[in-house]
Amino acid sequence: MTEATSTVTPDPKTRSNRAIAIACVAFFSGMVGMAYAAVPLYDLFCRVTGFGGTTQRTDQYSDVILDRDIEIRFDANVAGGMPWQFEPAQRSTKIKIGETTQVSYTSQNVAQRPVMGTASFNVTPELAGAYFMKVECFCFTETELQPGETMDMPVVFYVDPKLVEVAELKDIKTITLSYTFFPTAGAQPVAARAGNDDTQADTEFGG
Predict the structure, then answer these.
(1) 128: region left, alpha or beta (phi > 0 left; psi from -120 to 50 alpha)
(2) How far is the C-alpha of 207 from the C-alpha of 204, rounded, in Å?
(3) Do 94 and 171 fall within a single domain?
(4) Is residue 91 a part of any domain in this protein?
(5) Which domain range does residue 89 map to?
(6) How deeply is 82 buried, as exposed, middle or buried, from its count of CB atoms within 10 A (0-12, 13-18, 19+)?
(7) What pLDDT score was predicted for residue 141?
(8) Which of 10-19, 90-99, 198-207 has the lowest mean pLDDT?
(9) Are residues 65 and 41 in the same domain?
(10) How many structural domains are present in the chain?
């Protein structure tokens, strides 16, 4: 007597749910990957186009200097929890368009511990970012200061003469270069330490 073999046919609804689950996981994984890729791609886009006032990096000096002055103003900021004093050595300077110029910012770590920071930067008006060329800048690397240490931070730059060919910028008189320093590499915000050592936090900021 032959025993009958039964075959279980998967429920179409079960197969459909499984396919949807697999598709959701694949979509989520793809979105995560895109999110990580978006940061460097966005940064590259800003550097190439000057979008958002992002300045340009170059290793070549301008070989054209126009007989036209432009004022460059300098701005300095620190993010919350960054125990540094940070300021430009001068608030503004007048240069020729195309003239390579060096200025300096000064940073001092007023905390009682080493602090590492990195600077974000932009220029205004934002459209001028595509024509503000940096040859040397402290913003290209992370900077660590020891307790009480002061550092001179040079910036070498020029304004690309092609700026005068842009209709929206041909009459521009002033460009502002702005930096903001942020703590990096596990730097602990002052607010987080205040509950443990209010006296130390006050001392670090001159309170």
Answers:
(1) alpha
(2) 7
(3) yes
(4) yes
(5) 56-204
(6) buried
(7) 86
(8) 198-207
(9) no
(10) 2
Instruction: Quote the pTM value.
Output: 0.65
Structure tokens at 103: 């200025």
**pLDDT computed for residue 139 by the predictor:** 86
Residues 6+ positions from 84 with CB-CB distance below 8 Å: 78, 107, 108, 109, 110, 115, 117, 145, 181
Contact call for residues 124 and 54 (beta carbons, < 8 A): no
Between residues 55 and 173, the one the model is more confident about: 173
Q: Which CATH number goes with the domain that contains 133?
A: 2.60.370.10
185 neighbors 131 (Cβ within 8 angstroms): no
Pair (44, 102) in one structural domain: no
Written as one letter, the residue type at 136 is E
AA letter at 41: L
Residue 83, burial from CB neighbour count under 10 angstroms (0-12, 13-18, 19+): buried
Instruction: Please name the amino acid found at residue 131.
Output: Y
Separation of alpha carbons 128 and 101, rounded Å: 17
CA–CA gap between residue 16 and residue 57 (Å, rounded): 53
Mean confidence (pLDDT) of the chain: 76
Q: What is the pLDDT of residue 36?
A: 36
Alpha carbons 144 and 121: distance in angstroms, whole number: 18
DSSP state for residue 166 in the 8-state scheme: S
* pLDDT higher than threshold 70 for residue 47: no
